[in-house]
Amino acid sequence: MATSDHQPQEEPRAAPPPMTVKELVDSGAVGSVVPPEYRSRDQDHAAVEVEIPTVDFLLLREGDDRQRRKTIRELGRACEEWGFFMVVNHGVPIGIIDAMLDAARGFFDLPEAEKREYAGNHVLDPIRCGTSFNPAVEDVKYWRDYFKLIVHPVFTSPSKPPGFSEALLGYATCVRKMTMELLRGISEALGLEQHCMERELDLYNGVQLVAGNLYPPCPQPELAMGLPPHSDHGLLTVLLQNGVGGLQVKHGGSWVHVRPAPCSFLVNTGDHMEIFSNGRIKSVLHRAVVNSWATRMSIAVVQGPSLETCVRPTPLLVKGVDRRMFRGMKYRDYVEFQQKNRLEEKSVLDVLRSTGD
Fold it and tell me: In a designed cystine with 212, which of 93, 104, 206, 233 is the match (CB 3.0 to 4.6 A)?
């Protein structure tokens, strides 16, 4: 009887999902040495400590005319000189803040198999979690696990752990109200009508993204990086930490280690603020460093334009001999481009820099 030399071929197996940092640490496999795939090229984590700009949100929202004008000037100066500031007297109840931190901690403590149900397939999936930034294209992994949730214009949330959705909705709603008020103040600081940014960028349908970040203790923090130097894609990012520091921002050519006041928020400007303002306000470079003694957790809320808005410099800030410094791009395309590639400083924004009108 004749036999065939052709054997049935096995279907290619999908690559296993990358092990999260928390999974790696909890397994005891790390020991006292950072695995080679996490060894960062940038091993200079030196930073100075200087006073960072502070904005009193209560005076911006409820101050008299003189107080409000002064606060708007301070807000504008912080954006133009730093791209970064601390917000105090923000009015977000401490109970809502604590509930969000507890909910994020509960999510990261879920069994790995349950978290992987939310891994997602696309960078704009409304619910997504993972590790590092984009392991598929990275030479070096980052000491960080994350979840990313799009909560506006349509609210989405994981169903686990219990109470997560309620905590997320309460927190995202409060932070969005605060962020919109800050954006109105920045519009006025730029010499524009306070609702100008809302109209031109369709902020009624603007994307609000909540990103939770987990940085477990690292045995050799001087060799690893939580996240490398980068700018954010949105207009503003509002950051909350669990009391463990690790954020550094670039200012005046030096890295500044940020130590926020209790019950405050940290806010940084993003790429689309730089585009909209025609370069008058720069997006700030920042990075996350890790430590060997405590788990750092942060929750970043990014406010951006609507996905379908083609963002370009507002004509109101392109006058006389000024030229348009950036080409327009749809916000959806910008986010996809950034999230699918390596996280490298302002590499995506640099693509849009214009050489002429």
Answer: 104
67 in any annotated domain: yes
What token pair was written down for 98?
Answer: 């604590």
CATH number of domain containing 220: 2.60.120.330
Coil/strand/helix, residue 257: strand
Q: Output the pTM of the full model.
A: 0.93
> What confidence tier does 357 reach under pLDDT thresholds 50, 70, 90?
very low
Q: In the 8-state DSSP scheme, what is residue 113?
A: H
Q: Which domain holds residue 325?
A: 38-350
* For residue 1, pLDDT beyond 50: no
Return d(Cα 128, Cα 120) in angstroms, integer: 5
Is 43 domain-assigned? Answer: yes
Which residues, 6+ apart, have CB-to-CB distance to 159 below 8 Å? 165
Residue pair 247/266 in contact (Cβ under 8 Å)? The answer is yes
Q: What is the pLDDT of residue 67?
A: 97
Does pLDDT of 277 surpass 70?
Answer: yes
Buried b (16+ CB within 10 A) or exposed e, 36-60: eebebeeeebebeeeebbebbbebb
**Total tally of structural domains belonging to the chain:** 1
Judge whether 87 lies within some domain: yes
The answer to the question of residue 84 being in a domain is yes
